Amino acid sequence: MAMKNIFVFCAWNKRARANYRKTILSPIPEESVLSCFPADRHAELRAWQETAGGFFAWGFRGGQRSLTIWRSLEPGDCVLAFFEEHYRVIARLVGKEQSDEFAKSMWGSVGGDAEGWRNIIFLSKPREIAVPAAALCPPLCSTYRGATRIAQQRIDRVIADSGSVERFVERHFGGGL
What we know:
Blueprint: E1 6-10, H1 14-23, H2 30-34, H3 42-52, E2 57-60, H4 64-72, E3 78-83, E4 86-98, H5 100-107, E5 119-123, E6 127-132, E7 148-149, H6 152-162, H7 165-172
Parallel strand pairs: 1-3
Antiparallel strand pairs: 1-7, 2-5, 3-4, 4-5, 4-6
Helix pairs in contact: 6-7
């Protein structure tokens, strides 16, 4: 799977960091995932788990902007976690689902937001990194506010400078995925 996109999510506050530790830095138990999805989805979810080396997931809120970003992501895309002006983990997108039940089970309700964090991405086992955003600006951004898909012009620059998104990742994040 070639990396076409780079997606950045933020874990900027105390609650987000707790969720980050719970479902990004620690694998999610299989039963916790499967119990939230219909049986006809279990085979594909298990295939994702096998590919990923466990279940690792992040959800982001409903809303048109987030949904548009979520829809544009494809398996194989690069996913970065960001907080405190640093990229903190890197992974590949393995799959994506929408599930209110899974979001509520993993991250609880979101103060009055009926859609919670229902737009879910499942990731390969994340690799911890500590790369200052300033070191990669440009072509990436110096800061983020929420879920961000890196703009195509920036991806084009990454490819022009490095040859591919994969080579950019290898060069700037200490190895491939």
